[in-house]
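SECTION: protein entry
WANTED: fold as tokens:
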Amino acid sequence: MPIEHAAVRVVQKPWGVGDLRPWSNIDGSRGAIGELWFERADESAPTPALLLKLLFTSQPLSIQVHPDDTFARAMGMPNGKSEAWYILAAQPDAQIGAGLKHQITAQQLRTSIQDGSIAELLRWRSVAAGDVIYIPAGTIHAIGAGIVLAEIQQRSDATFRLYDYGRQRELHEDNSVAAAHPWPLRTLGNSAAVAANRTTLVASKHFVLERVELPEGSSWALLAEPETWMLILNGHAAIGLAAASTGEAIFIGGGRNSVEVGHNGLSALIAYPASRPIDSLLQSLDEQPGKLTHPATHSVPQFAGSAEART
């Protein structure tokens, strides 16, 4: 099964930045870079179900909402868009908006889009490196300035804007009102330990997002799903024959694969389409053959894909 360095697509945005270090050495001096998309290196490969991105913000993004699968398919799209954010870096005053301060009616939501008061209704929260925010489809949300984050999402570009800070781009009033869940997001995330080296950050209807911390010089078997993404947060490792370090992403096409960790250890995000964590995802090769490293002993919260559900 393929193991490949993900190709990187550079997306310039007016709210982006020029310096992406330490996450990338790509030069943004000729135009602010807002997003790096990680994609299959083989352009003829099947389209993945998930999209992994890095976002860099120097200005706030628009307030927006994504439709769920039912709404998206009714509009002729293949699926909706639920997503999760992992904060890589944040300035001291950085904030994200997720859900509303209180529930409002559809007509009140429409009025708030028309007069711009939706920005005051959104619940803003301070963020710091290591925070995790799950945004189910239908959640009204926004990303503020001064943030670097990793995003894993259903592969979709279905986005409806409610407010755009005067940038003169089109707003999508009717679709936003129809798609949005105009109420608070009950919690931002709920991590659970799966094993000594693994933490499940999000287990949703559409994907699982984990963080792994592997000690220096250790050896592992990764029993991957047919679509598995790994983003290196810190350190370096060889995944199969692919060497990767901070800011790089690896696509793993399933099967049993070796992970050899370098002398600085390895911190990484792993994401795959599933509704619950795979107990046998990582097996230590430094222990007895066939022995799983600390199989799951904690229940993992399940997310129902609605802003009204537990997150």
About this structure: DSSP finds four helices and 21 strands in the chain.
